[in-house]
Amino acid sequence: MTYAQMLALARSKVRPVQLGEFDSTGVVAAVLEGANGKYYAGVNIDLACGLGFCAERSAAAAMVTDGERRIKRFVCVDVSGNLLPPCGACREFLLQLAPENARARYLVQEEPEREQELAELMPLPWFDWKEKE
Ligand SMILES: [Zn+2]
After folding, report:
1. Given a cut of 90, is residue 125 above it in pLDDT?
2. How far is the CA of 97 from the centre of ligand 1 (A)?
3. Residues with Cβ within 5 Å of ion ligand 1?
4. Degrees (nearest 5) of the Cα angle 77, 88, 22?
5. Sorting pLDDT into bands at 50, 70 and 90, what band is 132?
6. Domains of the chain with CATH codes
7. How many CB atoms lie within 10 A of CB 62?
8. Which of 72, 76, 77, 131 sits at 20 to 30 Å (Cα–Cα) from 16?
9. How far is ligand 1, taken at its centre, from the CA of residue 88, in Å?
10. Cis before residue 123, ω within 30 degrees of 0?
11. Paired strand residues for 45
12. DSSP of 96-126
Protein backbone atom coordinates (compact mmCIF):
# COMPACT_ATOMS: atom_id res chain seq x y z
CA MET A 1 0.00 0.00 0.00
CA THR A 2 1.22 3.50 -0.77
CA TYR A 3 0.95 6.25 1.81
CA ALA A 4 -1.96 7.64 -0.24
CA GLN A 5 -3.75 4.30 0.08
CA MET A 6 -3.00 4.13 3.80
CA LEU A 7 -4.41 7.64 4.19
CA ALA A 8 -7.55 6.73 2.24
CA LEU A 9 -8.06 3.73 4.51
CA ALA A 10 -7.51 5.83 7.65
CA ARG A 11 -9.89 8.53 6.41
CA SER A 12 -12.53 5.87 5.70
CA LYS A 13 -12.36 4.83 9.36
CA VAL A 14 -13.10 8.32 10.76
CA ARG A 15 -16.69 8.07 11.98
CA PRO A 16 -17.25 10.40 14.93
CA VAL A 17 -19.75 9.09 17.45
CA GLN A 18 -20.68 10.97 20.61
CA LEU A 19 -21.19 8.24 23.20
CA GLY A 20 -22.15 10.54 26.05
CA GLU A 21 -21.55 14.03 27.36
CA PHE A 22 -17.81 13.38 27.73
CA ASP A 23 -17.35 10.27 25.61
CA SER A 24 -16.62 9.91 21.92
CA THR A 25 -15.00 7.60 19.41
CA GLY A 26 -13.98 7.60 15.75
CA VAL A 27 -12.68 11.18 15.80
CA VAL A 28 -9.13 10.10 14.94
CA ALA A 29 -8.07 7.08 12.87
CA ALA A 30 -4.72 5.40 12.28
CA VAL A 31 -3.37 2.70 9.97
CA LEU A 32 -0.22 0.76 10.80
CA GLU A 33 1.78 -1.39 8.41
CA GLY A 34 3.21 -4.29 10.37
CA ALA A 35 6.58 -5.85 9.60
CA ASN A 36 4.51 -8.84 8.43
CA GLY A 37 3.19 -6.71 5.56
CA LYS A 38 -0.35 -6.56 6.95
CA TYR A 39 -2.26 -3.36 7.67
CA TYR A 40 -4.14 -2.58 10.87
CA ALA A 41 -6.64 0.21 11.42
CA GLY A 42 -7.86 1.72 14.65
CA VAL A 43 -9.84 4.65 15.96
CA ASN A 44 -9.67 6.62 19.18
CA ILE A 45 -11.95 5.80 22.10
CA ASP A 46 -12.19 8.67 24.58
CA LEU A 47 -14.23 8.02 27.70
CA ALA A 48 -14.91 10.01 30.85
CA CYS A 49 -12.39 9.98 33.71
CA GLY A 50 -9.46 9.76 31.29
CA LEU A 51 -10.27 6.22 30.16
CA GLY A 52 -9.74 5.29 26.54
CA PHE A 53 -6.92 5.46 24.05
CA CYS A 54 -5.70 6.93 20.80
CA ALA A 55 -6.20 5.53 17.31
CA GLU A 56 -2.54 4.46 17.05
CA ARG A 57 -2.82 2.29 20.17
CA SER A 58 -6.15 0.92 18.97
CA ALA A 59 -4.52 -0.13 15.68
CA ALA A 60 -1.50 -1.48 17.56
CA ALA A 61 -3.80 -3.62 19.72
CA ALA A 62 -5.25 -5.20 16.56
CA MET A 63 -1.71 -5.79 15.27
CA VAL A 64 -0.54 -7.41 18.52
CA THR A 65 -3.70 -9.53 18.59
CA ASP A 66 -2.63 -10.77 15.15
CA GLY A 67 0.80 -11.75 16.51
CA GLU A 68 2.87 -8.81 15.21
CA ARG A 69 4.59 -6.11 17.29
CA ARG A 70 6.90 -4.50 14.72
CA ILE A 71 5.74 -1.52 12.67
CA LYS A 72 7.12 -0.47 9.28
CA ARG A 73 5.02 2.63 8.66
CA PHE A 74 1.93 4.37 9.99
CA VAL A 75 -0.41 7.25 9.33
CA CYS A 76 -2.88 9.03 11.56
CA VAL A 77 -5.63 11.50 10.64
CA ASP A 78 -8.00 13.74 12.56
CA VAL A 79 -11.73 14.21 12.04
CA SER A 80 -11.04 16.50 9.07
CA GLY A 81 -8.64 14.01 7.50
CA ASN A 82 -5.55 16.05 8.36
CA LEU A 83 -2.34 14.25 9.28
CA LEU A 84 -1.49 13.99 12.96
CA PRO A 85 1.81 13.02 14.56
CA PRO A 86 1.58 10.48 17.40
CA CYS A 87 1.04 11.96 20.87
CA GLY A 88 3.61 11.38 23.59
CA ALA A 89 1.79 8.37 25.03
CA CYS A 90 1.59 6.69 21.62
CA ARG A 91 5.23 7.40 20.86
CA GLU A 92 6.23 5.62 24.05
CA PHE A 93 3.69 2.82 23.57
CA LEU A 94 4.76 2.02 20.00
CA LEU A 95 8.42 2.16 20.91
CA GLN A 96 8.01 -0.20 23.85
CA LEU A 97 6.12 -2.75 21.74
CA ALA A 98 9.35 -3.55 19.91
CA PRO A 99 12.77 -1.81 19.81
CA GLU A 100 12.65 -2.02 16.00
CA ASN A 101 9.76 0.42 16.07
CA ALA A 102 12.29 3.20 16.58
CA ARG A 103 12.72 2.91 12.79
CA ALA A 104 8.96 2.95 12.10
CA ARG A 105 8.17 5.76 9.69
CA TYR A 106 5.08 7.92 9.81
CA LEU A 107 3.78 10.41 7.30
CA VAL A 108 4.42 13.99 8.37
CA GLN A 109 3.30 15.75 5.20
CA GLU A 110 1.17 14.60 2.28
CA GLU A 111 2.24 16.91 -0.60
CA PRO A 112 5.07 16.45 -1.19
CA GLU A 113 5.27 13.26 0.85
CA ARG A 114 7.56 13.58 3.82
CA GLU A 115 8.06 10.93 6.45
CA GLN A 116 9.92 10.79 9.72
CA GLU A 117 11.14 8.00 11.99
CA LEU A 118 9.59 7.47 15.39
CA ALA A 119 13.11 7.70 16.90
CA GLU A 120 13.28 11.33 15.79
CA LEU A 121 10.47 12.08 18.24
CA MET A 122 12.26 10.29 21.08
CA PRO A 123 15.67 11.93 21.36
CA LEU A 124 16.28 11.06 25.02
CA PRO A 125 15.29 7.45 25.69
CA TRP A 126 14.80 6.55 29.34
CA PHE A 127 15.25 2.83 28.65
CA ASP A 128 17.71 0.94 26.46
CA TRP A 129 15.74 0.62 23.23
CA LYS A 130 18.63 2.08 21.22
CA GLU A 131 21.00 -0.66 22.38
CA LYS A 132 18.63 -3.40 21.25
CA GLU A 133 18.48 -2.26 17.62
ZN1 LIG B 1 -1.81 9.06 21.05
Report:
1. no
2. 14
3. 54, 87, 90
4. 65
5. low
6. 3-121 (3.40.140.10)
7. 16
8. 72
9. 6
10. no
11. 25, 53
12. HH-GGGGG-EEEEETTTTEEEEGGGG-SS-S
Per-residue pLDDT tens for 14-57? 999 999 888 999 999 999 999 999 999 999 999 988 899 999 99
For ligand 1, the distance from its centroid to the CA atom of residue 57, given in whole angstroms, is 7
Give the pLDDT band of residue 124 (cuts 50, 70, 90).
confident
Identify the sign of the CA torsion 46, 119, 95, 89. negative
Angstrom distance (rounded) from CA 61 to CA 58: 5
Is the confidence at residue 127, as pLDDT, over 70?
A: yes
Report how far ligand 1's centroid is from the alpha carbon of 30 (Å): 10
